Amino acid sequence: MTTHKPLFPLFLKLAGRSVLVVGAGSVAASKLHALVASGAEVHVVAPEINPVIKSMAVRISQRCFQASDLDEAWFVVAAATSDVNRAVAAAAEQRHIFVNAVDDPSNASAYLGGVTRRPGVTVAISTDGNAPALAGLIREGLDTVLPEADLKKWIVEAKEMRRKWKQNQVPMSDRRPQLLLALIKSYDLET
Asked: What is the pTM (predicted TM-score) of this model?
């Protein structure tokens, strides 16, 4: 009996890096917006291309996946059939490249979470690939309660405090309590 190990959460800097997307249907199109927004250099490979994808700023190869498509890739999104996703995952595994196989956990080595963004803050929710709809519902809930105006103020305060902590070599264990007190104090000053 194998025990499921927890996933390691991670945010990637993809700007200027090659990302391969295998598949070009509506599911692939839904992933492309975030990849393009991150600055990734996206290469889409598929025998048939969704018209929405054709209008995007991505490189397109209208053909079947070839293992050599992975040669420059830092990350892969496989949004094709299970058979194609399996071939992508096997070729990527040999090259030590992580693969998000959309709605296909058995062929994935990375899972994309439900994401909520505010200026300076990104929150991602994962269900370990088991219940993406639940991750989406949780994301929607968080989206409604995250205060955009307050977050901007919190980011400014946290950045300034971080600068001071580094300058004064404040131990990590002392930082969160200090930040919480500073944020609470900022509300006291407003009243």
From this structure: 0.81
Pick from 57, 71, 13: which is nearest to 44 by CA?
Answer: 57
Q: Are strands 121-125 and 114-118 parallel, antiparallel or unpaired?
A: antiparallel
Count the Cβ atoms, other than its own, within 10 Å of residue 49: 19
The predicted-structure confidence for 101-127, as pLDDT tens digits, reads as follows 988 889 999 988 888 888 888 888 988
Q: Which two tokens stand for residue 58?
A: 């991505």
Q: Which tens digit of pLDDT belongs to each residue from 150-172?
A: 888 888 999 999 999 999 999 99
Report yes or no: 80 and 74 within 8 Å, Cβ to Cβ. Answer: no
Q: Nearest-CA neighbor of 149 among 179, 119, 124, 122?
A: 119
